[in-house]
Amino acid sequence: MRKPFAGIFAVFYLLCSLWSGLSAQTEDELVDDLSALIRFQTVTRDNDANRAAMEWIVEELAGLPIQVKWYESKGFPSVVITSQETTSPKILLAGHLDVVPGTEESFQPKVEDGRLIGRGAYDMKMGIAAALNIFKALGDDLNKYDVGLMLTADEEIGGFNGVKYLVEQGYGAGIVVMPDGGFDWNFETQAKGILWLEVTAEGKSAHGSRTWLGENAIMKLARFLIMLEEDFATEKESGDDYYTTVNIGTIEGGKATNQVPDLATATVDIRYTPKYSSDNMLARVVGKAELFDGIAVQEKISGGSHFADTSNPLFVSFAKIAQEVADIEVGEAKSHGASDARFFSGQKIPTMVIAGKGGNHHAEGEWIDIADYEKFYQVLLAWVKENGRK
To answer: What pLDDT score was predicted for residue 15?
Structure first.
């Protein structure tokens, strides 16, 4: 007599066996592709290395139904790969290949204790390798989807000739996915904007023994910077643990110990929350400078903040799939840093910044958890399949 449910258990066992085999194969491919990307020494401003990595990715996708468009701005290469002839796919997977400098050894990937270690593994070649494998998995069915992959080479120095340039060329999306933050499975709901300033104080030189004949530019600059620091200290006192900060990065001034300095400069790094903008931050600093004679403020770099609405149905879908496919509960987090996501969200394009488990980015021993990396790939693939059809 046939035992009840024996057939069901047999089918279940077979499916589990097939999944295990597929999982191992996928893991090997993911590790191999990420390792290959790490070996490209794509340090920012090494445009040849960054272009070579991009060319390798394009070659990996050769024969698939894709559109490939190359761009260059001030020597920095970018490439956009799409499944349709469009500059605004339903889903755009975006990432930067450039990394901070590292030792020669850091560009030789190694596997230890379930981790893949190497420069750029977490920031952010993991996300790029996952996106590459999603395109491979969709294969000849890519033309049934409306997806894109945008690769740039200058995020570590601001992204102005990468994502910003491409957005100015008309690129957009229904939603952008950027695994460059939101670490450990957290949607990045906010990321601070950035404003770098150079402050110059002018004084009057005199002999160091006759200070009353001169005007000390260093002391004037110091008084201004203390006033600025005290003004921004009120942000911390607001009670919110996520607040706007100001850092005095460098100070230069004076030519000799026995001379009253007539010129002094400082660089200022302001990181502001999404409730502010670069314009009102600049106006705030200039307003303080106008209280002094001979202090000028010059903007050097500015970049907007990032904000994400996690009630967006596509965010909800991702969280649901993460729970179903990988038994992972997606959380939320705020970032004190900045990323290229700001260029998309600044255009009101929903931008999902999220990544899996890893650590030591911008440091020696940068790593990702291999098993978690595969989970991230499987979740992202399932989400693209559900939401990316044309």
So the answer is: 37
